[in-house]
Amino acid sequence: MVLTDTAIRNAKPADKPYKVTDSQGLYLLVNPRGSKLWRIKYRIDGVERKLSIGAYPEITLAEARAARDAARRQLAHAIDPNVAKRQARIEASIRASNSFASVAEELIEKKAREGLAEPTLEKMRWFVKLMGADFGKRPVTDITPQELLHELQKHERRGRLETANLLRAFASRVFRFAVATARAERDPAQLLIGALTTPRVKHFAAGLLVW
User: Fold this and answer.
1) Cis-peptide, bond into residue 57, ω within 30° of zero
2) How far is residue 105's CA from residue 128's CA, in Å, rounded to a whole number?
3) Where a domain ends, among 70, 96, 122?
4) Residue ranges of the chain with pLDDT lower than 50?
5) Domain carrying residue 13
6) pTM above 0.70?
7) Angle, in degrees to the nearest 10, between helices 61-76 and 81-97
């Protein structure tokens, strides 16, 4: 008999863990302390295995069934769902380490080792903050010229023309570093040359923005 939300809610803890089955390998493991964990039982190469897909109610019955169906599709193509899950985690970790903020910080550390003046390093760190936390989390490979322009135009609309142009130049430096270290294939900031309003020329202290 397939599970219902009512049956799941009524499943009470016992002295030992027990299973409440749904269908096609999906079941709920009810633990003595009250946690209810979704599991999928499957076989590959004749060996029985289990796939963890989360806890109820964070993962609903409908979501658990969708995960089961996705796992069954993987099995139909001789893909082990547990292996696919681990690979997805690894890829997510790699993408996180290749975020704009992470690559920018690596560039700043490199410039520090090369002896760049501390005021300039602080200026670069300030630029990273100005780009915003959400933008900073984006993988460098996923950022488009349109997305970058949207961020830069926020400063332009506030009358910060000089800041917007300096940020574009800094972003270009970060993307070129990502390309040089084989983590990106292009510099979207380069494509935005001429897209921003050019501010009136101001003179900076010598060496302040020489990277």
Assistant:
1) yes
2) 8
3) 96
4) 210
5) 5-96
6) no
7) 100
